[in-house]
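Lab notebook, entry 324. We have the chain sequence and a SMILES string for flavin-adenine dinucleotide, and the next step in the workflow is to get a structural model of the bound complex before anyone spends time on docking refinements. Request logged below.

Task: model protein plus flavin-adenine dinucleotide, output structure tokens.
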Amino acid sequence: MRNVIVFVEHTGDHTRKVTYELACEARRLADVLGGKAHAIVLGSGAPALAERLKAYPLDVIDVAEDADVDRFLIDPTIDYLEALARELGPSAILIPNTMYGRDIAGRILARLEAGLASDVIDLKVEGENLLCVSPKLGGTTIATCTFKNTEYAVITVRPNAFAVEAAGAGAQIVQLGKPAGKQYAMLVESVVEESSGELGLEEASVVVSGGRGLGGAQPFETLLKPLADALGGAVGASRAAADAGWVPYSLQIGQTGKTVSPNLYLAVGISGAIQHKVGMRTSGTIVAINKDAGAPIADFSDLLVVGDLFQIVPELTKLIGTAS
Ligand SMILES: Cc1cc2nc3c(=O)[nH]c(=O)nc-3n(C[C@H](O)[C@H](O)[C@H](O)COP(=O)(O)OP(=O)(O)OC[C@H]3O[C@@H](n4cnc5c(N)ncnc54)[C@H](O)[C@@H]3O)c2cc1C
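Result returned:
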């Protein structure tokens, strides 16, 4: 028997869509493993978020609205998560594969002496083994890994990998006690929130990305943003655009930026360098707009529209607006 614990990443009043994906996958896994599906929500806003999570098929939502979680860097969060994992015993811990989630994963696995499977896109159970499927080497290889230690398994899951089906199971809300005797050294001085668009980039179902072909910061605002809005998506960028200072680095997709896997990826004025490709190649449908029919992106896009983006993008935005 093994329980499943979902780590809920949130900003007080906002959680990521991946949380709900993990809640639904936790239900499926817990049923197969014969355990319970838990979610742990910590810090300010935790009780309200726990109420919202009741709409998803969890058994227990473990909550602590402890000011220390927000006042101090990551350690109080890890203490709560470790205490819950030790209390529940053998568990699979599902964490969003985000920048913060990866930080949590690295620390909790050290505390529990657990193994880690990262950037997982599928989970299977075979006997005692939990099989984790994840793309490696920039998506050119799909690896299936399992854990030698069957006590604790730490798994970071790629956003958009699992479907969401809201079907509340009447989850019980449990208040967690504060881990005793802990002292923390690192105070949080300030927190700067990204705009909601940037926050949602990794889990947006449509991403409209711009590259050097846009020629400056303004077309991101006047051309790409309206197109992304018309499609209900988020704006991304190549490193060339971020390096030029046209967009913040938080929008960069690729080897040294974010990995996205939306249903639709639109690459506008992006050549398709390998370092960009590894951050978006698992997208459902890839459409590129490029004036060069021989650009490398032609090799891995489903549709290449050859022409001037400054003419095509406004027309496309207008057409989508008319159709919707
Ligand atoms: C270690 C390392 C890590 C890196 N990490 C990343 C990363 O994470 N993400 C990333 O993106 N890159 C990364 N790079 C950089 C990468 O190699 C490329 O330089 C970069 O992706 C190029 O960006 P781009 O496609 O926007 O620009 P370019 O390669 O210059 O392409 C611009 C494209 O726009 C087209 N174009 C120009 N004008 C128009 C127009 N009017 N209409 C239509 N099309 C037009 C051109 O035909 C061209 O294909 C990394 C590089 C290194 C060495």
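Notes for the group: The mean pLDDT is 92. Worth checking against the assay data. Residues 61 and 173 are 5 Å apart (CA to CA).
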